[in-house]
Amino acid sequence: MTIPSAPSAPSATSAHSTRRLSLLKPTGHLTLGNLLGALRPMVAAQQTADCFYGIADLHALTVAHDPVALRELVREQATLLLAAGLDASTLFVQSRVPAHAQLACLLECVATTGELNRMIQFKEKGRGVDSTKTSLFTYPVLMAADILLYRPTQVPVGDDQRQHVELTRDVAVRFNSAYGAVFTIPEITTPPAGARVMDLADPTAKMGKTGSDGAGVIHLLDPPDVVRRKVARGVTDSETGPEAIRADREAKPGVTNLLEILAACGGDPAGLTTYGALKKAVTDAVVAELEPLQKRYSDLAADPDHVTEVYAAGAARCREVTAPVLAAAEAAIGL
Ligand code: AMP
Fold first, then answer.
1. Where are the domains of the chain?
2. Do the domains 224-300 and 18-195+303-333 match in fold?
3. Active-site annotation holds for 279
4. In Å, how far are 96, 241, 281 from 229, measured between CA atoms?
5. Which of 129, 159, 305, 315 could lock 96 by a disulfide, CB 3.0 to 4.6 Å apart?
6. What is the spatial distance between Cα 171 and Cα 185, in angstroms, rounded to a whole number?
7. Any ligand 1 atom below 6 A from CB of 63
């Protein structure tokens, strides 16, 4: 059995001066979209930054959830992050670093209901329902705590989270001017456009962990025959002939998505003349991409104590890094 060696988190004094923080929500099984759009760039960032990667289990509680399923998803995601090659990062589960919830409590005394009411995601998720979990409303404040605790100078953020990071900045500025300069105000940066993998059954929608019935979603632990079936049933169009195999996101979203997945997984469309051949090439490329990850996953899953130790060491480092920030915030606000 081969286990990638990551017995402990990187030391408190990392060789990299820039910090990077990303949290993934364990609200479903990770997908090929997560791998190509998030995990790959996270692996690459380990070369240049001191990376903190967390599993946002507290955020997963803001929507309907089943406790047993959540615990299982956290365990699976924790193992998958290691299997994907994040072994030079500080990996942690958010709830195991109590400073996140503690700082969120203080920041709720700085953020206002007016601001939270303006959050587009809250409006969208709460649309048409009389009442939601309170945590769905206050989620952006917990996210502000997630960020501010690590004093990053830059936060690369996609469009869907931009408003939340703007709120983070506003809250930090207000806290600093009311109580003293505790927080670094992070700049918002736009990450380079990454791969955007679309749902195979509905190529106008993002391939997501939740939201569709899963027929067009490739999960990272799908065995080869499942990948084959999902790709084979993927939507294309009625054009025929070799010229039909071309990228055109507007007119041919299904074929374009297949071509992009093929390229991202190291495949080559040269010489393909039918959609059947394209789908076979995509299947082969995706299966080849997932195979080593799935092998590492099953090795790691056979040694759960190792995974537990990696995350315990990660949480310990997070507690060490965040303790002075929480202590400064508590002292400044009068506790
Ligand atoms: P989510 O699964 O929506 O919580 O997103 C977690 C991370 O994966 C974010 O960085 C997303 O941008 C990325 N991601 C999720 N789905 C896709 C997709 N279909 N294509 C590319 N990136 C994705």
1. 18-195+303-333, 224-300
2. no
3. no
4. 39, 23, 13
5. 315
6. 9
7. no
The bridge status of strand 187-189 relative to strand 50-55 is unpaired
- Are 20 and 102 within 8 A, CB to CB? no
Contact 133 CB / ligand 1 (< 6 Å): no
The class that CATH gives domain 18-195+303-333 is alpha beta
Say how far apart CA 120 and CA 98 lie, in whole Å.
27
Q: Would you call 96 exposed, middle or buried from its count of C-beta atoms within 10 A (0-12, 13-18, 19+)?
A: middle
Q: Is 208 in the pocket of ligand 1 (CB under 6 A)?
A: yes
CA of 96 to the centre of ligand 1 (A): 24
Query: Does any ligand 1 atom lie closer than 6 A to the CB of residue 196?
Result: yes
Q: How far is the CA of 195 from the centre of ligand 1 (A)?
A: 9
Tokens of 133: 């979990």
- For domain 224-300, which architecture applies? Orthogonal Bundle (1.10)
Which residue, chain included where needed, has tokens 């919830």?
Answer: 101
pLDDT, tens digit, 9 for 90 and up, residues 94-129: 999 999 999 999 999 999 999 999 999 888 887 778
How many whole angstroms from 174 Cα to the centroid of ligand 1?
A: 31
The CA distance from 122 to 106, in Å, is: 21
Considering the entire predicted model, what is its pTM? Answer: 0.92
Q: Which two tokens stand for residue 279?
A: 């789908």
Q: Is 25 a residue of the active site?
A: no
